[in-house]
Design a protein that fits this description.
Blueprint: E1 9-11, H1 19-24, E2 29-32, H2 48-59, E3 63-67, H3 72-79, E4 86-87, H4 96-105, E5 112-116, H5 119-128, E6 132-136, H6 145-163
Parallel strand pairs: 1-6, 2-3, 2-5, 3-4, 5-6
Bound molecules: magnesium ion.
Protein name: YqeG family HAD IIIA-type phosphatase
Cofactor: Mg(2+)
GO molecular function: metal ion binding; phosphatidylglycerophosphatase activity
């Protein structure tokens, strides 16, 4: 049961995820969360660093799609300038948006990673849909309303996993 919440990898930020590293894993596509993964949940636009990250992926022929549970306005305003495909109101952790996106990318699940800052949506959803999952540390410690409840549950799951010795990364 707890295994479903366990990411394959845990990194500090998306900038630790490079095309070179992904290619070693045989990865050609990235599905990434938006809020608190790419920028803080209350920041509207991509930073220069995020823009460069997207460009770097593109230069190495790695497709990147943004999948968010947030609404159309938030996700489209952010993704537009990046020229990145996006899915809003994705209803993570349900599998549908993940699976549809891999299909859109024309890639098998094995060639796609799911990146996000939340166990209950990104990691659980990515795992259940059969993808390799990478958890990042949330950019800021605050969250939007719904996420705050998820975080409370997340803390309990993290504590269980810690007690069982399932966590090999540093504490947040
Ligand atoms: Mg998030």
């Amino acid at each position: 049961m707890l295994k479903r919440f366990l990411p394959n990898e845990h990194v500090k930020s998306i900038f630790d995820i490079t095309p070179e590293r992904l290619k070693k894993l045989g990865i050609e596509g990235v599905i990434t969360d938006l809020d608190n993964t790419l920028v803080a949940w209350d920041v509207k636009d991509a930073t220069d660093e995020v823009k460069q990250w997207f460009q770097h992926m593109k230069d190495h022929d790695i497709q990147v799609t943004i999948i968010s549970n947030n609404d159309e306005e938030r996700v489209s305003v952010f993704s537009g300038p990046l020229e990145a495909p996006f899915v809003y109101s994705a209803r993570k952790p349900f599998s549908r948006a993940f699976k549809n996106t891999a299909k859109q990318m024309n890639l098998s699940k094995k060639k796609v990673v799911v990146i996000g800052d939340q166990l209950l949506t990104d990691v659980l959803g990515g795992n259940m849909a059969g993808f390799y999952t990478i958890l990042v540390v949330p950019i800021v410690e605050t969250d939007g309303k719904i996420t705050r409840i998820n975080r409370m549950i997340e803390r309990r799951i993290l504590n269980w996993m810690r007690k069982k010795g399932m966590i090999t990364w540093e504490e947040r």
